[in-house]
Amino acid sequence: MAVQTRKKKPAPLGSDVVAEGATPLHSQIRESIRSQVRDGKLIDATGRLMTEAELGRHFGVSRITIRNAIAPLVTEGMFARSRGRGTFLRSNQPENWVGHLMGFSETIRDAGYQAGARILQQGMTNRHDAAVRDQLRERAVWQLKRLRLADDTPIAIEHAFYPPDIGLELEKRDLVSIIMYRVFEDELGLAIKDAQQTISADLADAGSAKLLGVKVGSPLLAIERVTFGKDGRALELLRAVYLPNYFRLSISLTRRHS
Questions:
Q1: With a threshold of 0.70, does the pTM exceed it?
Q2: What is the rounded CA–CA span in Å between residue 19 and residue 11?
Q3: How far is it, in rounded angstroms, from Cα 13 to Cα 4?
């Protein structure tokens, strides 16, 4: 939430939301719902969220404010509405994939977590496989391997490869908190056109299991993504594995008619 510059009023009914400040009230309540639900509050044993009336009483606000707070959480996939039954927490946190290219930090922050990273490897290398060489068309590339965190919990391992000129620019920046695609576009002047991404299942080996805190052989979600500039140049090759309970891929499909 935004830092309040005015004196806060007492929060109603034990909530951590106040009506004052630059952030709209429904946005404050949305983030409070997100946070409290992650702590097991506001939902029952079946994952059913309090009704709008109950939430209104809990936060001391109108039902329309509650409705505006909840709607984006349903859209992003945190909750699902069931007609006649209520609003239920989904079992995993989402990456709503509807054609928008987003990096880890953008995705995980949209899901309500604090994104973080621990750097495992970085720098120039020529010890990469043929697929990296073919995609980036470079004999030597700059690599960045990071353990990705959500609220300090390890949930992913990302290994990215870049052409040397891009990598050497990235090296000058804070690689723990960097929002990669924003740096590409806003600081490096690299216009992103699109990306090709493949998704598959994987099993944790000894190394990834130790980093992610799971057993060897645990299921992981694996992706490989090549991001292209408007000139057709490959800007990044990313290989990553994620804990599947933190990611749900929702893909919009259309029927092709002949």
A1: no
A2: 9
A3: 20
**Domain residues of the chain, as ranges?**
12-89, 95-251
Structure tokens, 2: 């935004």
> What pLDDT score does 7 carry?
37
Banded pLDDT at 18 (limits 50, 70, 90): very low
What's the residue count for the chain?
258
Neighbours of 149 (CB within 10 A): 19
Architecture of domain 12-89: Orthogonal Bundle (1.10)
Region of 252 on the Ramachandran plot (φ > 0 left; ψ -120 to 50 alpha; else beta): beta
Helix H segments across 39-173?
Answer: 52-59, 63-75, 104-110, 130-136, 164-170
For domain 95-251, give the fold: Chorismate lyase (3.40.1410)
For residue 211, the model assigns a pLDDT of 96
